[in-house]
Specification:
elongated; alpha+beta; 4 helices
């Protein structure tokens, strides 16, 4: 039985291509945590550093279009638009997680008794942590959270930019 401060919360990792700052995929992972909101958020932030490795990518941007110069690129969202996109489509992201949550079973009176199956649902304003995962062309990813990971991103960005300049000359 859940205590009244136990609730569904989640982490959302948006995968950002370092070379283009475009995103096509998100990784979503629900948790059932108890404690104060501050304790839950602290736990989510700790899990955000590595727990993305145990979940699958979801193509969230299939209906999005990005304008790059005179061209339109379907199926991507720019990094600068993700927060707004996420906020406007929160119900989609929640439903993606809810459809994979196991039901809660409540047994009353044995096998033939009045047993109850309840679908799990997120609260109206669920707690979550949103993290950008910066990905290079080799599939290496790091969350854009710590000074070390931000330095890795800056180094990769410089390397990729230098590499692309070499192809343009």
């Amino acid at each position: 039985m859940q205590s009244n401060n136990t609730e569904l919360v989640f982490n959302a990792w948006f995968i950002i291509d370092i070379a283009t700052n475009l995103s096509k995929y998100v990784i979503l992972k629900p948790y059932c945590l108890s404690g104060s909101d501050e304790e839950k958020l602290k736990t989510l932030k700790i899990l955000a550093e590595t727990d993305y490795l145990t979940s699958e990518r979801i193509d969230f941007a299939h209906n999005s279009t990005v304008e790059i110069g005179a061209k339109s690129l379907k199926g991507y969202t720019h990094k600068s638009l993700i927060n707004n996109y996420f906020e406007m489509n929160i119900d989609y992201f929640l439903s993606e997680m809810e459809k994979n949550l196991p039901p809660i079973l409540e047994f009353k009176g044995g096998m033939l008794g009045d047993n109850k199956v309840t679908k799990q649902k997120f609260p109206d304003a669920p707690l979550f942590v949103q993290t950008f995962l910066m990905e290079n062309e080799y599939g290496e990813m790091k969350p854009y959270t710590t000074p070390e990971n931000k330095a890795w991103y800056a180094s990769e960005k410089r390397r990729i930019d230098e590499k692309s300049k070499g192809f343009q000359n």
